[in-house]
Sequence to fold (88 residues):
Amino acid sequence: MGKTMAQALIEEGMEKGLQQGLQQGLQQGKKEGLYDAISLGLEIKFGADGLVLLEKVLKIESVRKLEVIRDAIKTANQIKDIEKLIKK
Fold:
């Protein structure tokens, strides 16, 4: 027996909801990994002074901005270089 129109729409809605949930979960997981990488990088490169910036970093939602900050830690000579990126 075939599906009714209502059943097909319900299944389609459920699949879209599942896909959206998976995407959100992946984004959140990526952000968590970036937060960890930035925290480690700040601590290794700048010690306790670097960790002071972590509170501001944790408020950043943009994955792209977090990636920029993570990459900048590698080449930053001063903590001010990272502070500028966080404030942008």
Remarks:
- The chain has five helices and no strands.
- Residues 5-46 form the longest helix (42 residues).
